[in-house]
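Limitations

Structures in this collection are predictions, not experimental determinations, and the ligand pose is part of the prediction. Treat each record accordingly. The example that follows, with iron/sulfur cluster as the small molecule, is included so readers can see exactly what is and is not provided: the inputs are given verbatim, and the output is the predicted complex.
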Amino acid sequence: MSGNALPSTPLDRTIGVMATSQSLPIIMPDLGDQRWSCHSCGDCCRSLVGHLFDEDRIRLDEQGWRDRLDVAPYVRVGRGWALNKRDDGACVFLDADNRCRIHSEFDESAKPLACRIFPFFVRAVPEGWQVSLRFDCPSVTSSKGRPIRQQRAGIRRIVRNLNHATPKDSQAPMLADRSRATVEELDLLWSRLRRWLDDSTIEPQTRWLGLARLAHTLSELKLTDVRGVRFGELLDLLVGALGSEDSIEAPTALQQGMLRQLVFAHAEHVTMHERRAGFLSKFKLRRRQLSTAGRFRRGRGPVPTLPGFEGDTTFRDVEAIAELESDRGPVADLMQRYLTARIEGQSICGAGYYGWSVFGGLSALCLAMASIGWLARLSAALDKRDRFTFEDVARALRVVDRAATRLPALGSVAERARVTYLLRDDGIVRLVAHYSILGARP
Ligand code: SF4
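Predicted complex:
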């Protein structure tokens, strides 16, 4: 991997640096012809916080940056350390040509671990290293560069000196907050979801709505006596019953308000300097956040400005945009890659997603789809267009996926309560249908 990569994710911190693990399998999701190479846009170096391991700091000190930069190379963030940022949010190592100075003056292996691994993330699982892909990099959404299936060796080089802390059974995700899933049950679930998502005889929108319907149904069931092989049989039954639904009611005003609040949580950007600010500044920030979240919930008048979504539009104008402008193929392909990466990369639940239960995490993924649909419409409305495009969807997806891997608030009790509430009255299914990424509302 090359270029300027600067990730920040709790998932990265699940890797400790100690013993070797050279022989363990690298488990990559099958994303078809998905490609990625760094094209030095500098986006990750500006928008993400690069958390550091002790070994990263030692290496930066040995490289002598303290004497060569006009600011500290790294600073405290919470209980850890992170690469320092300039006032405009850029990493202190990013030069005027969007190149990483550590990479240019030394080599790629001299960079902090988090920068080298982005846009992949890696997690220790009993079978080896589970790899997934982040979609907050423009080269990933546009699938530009080398096929990722050829990048296994590069990932192996990065993880070879890492400690493989195999998760204990007690860390397995809950099925629906009541009992832990077994490895076999998770395998059954991933394979059935994958088969459903890959079924090209079914319209993409129907497949995505089917995911939401499945999440809804599974969350309601008591599975105490339906475990192991019987769980697989139940999944077959439920997936077999999925299909196009005659009509889906529009979401209620309350459901729409809750989704808009979630969009705000995804899109709002708290800078590293704001995170490090004193109590008073944090208090003011929190007050501002609550006030803006309230405006998103009410959904009246002008849409408050979100980072990266500057301009004037109203909530009414966003709602008026229903259609996708261009060919549906590229959008369907993008969403298929994204959903597969999240599901097969196991980054929707347990240690892969803030400790969420399997069905809760699947529901949260469906809400992420609806959020992408809403943000794509906002992007078009700000540009004074009456239809949205592939670029609007890709932009929305980058914002939503950046939050999915960096925003601990998405794992909070409040967020779980939002999902629980929206599972009632078919809220999640209605929202996925209403803010359809392919533009057609049933
Ligand atoms: S966002 Fe992607 S393409 Fe841009 S600098 Fe980072 S890794 Fe490279």
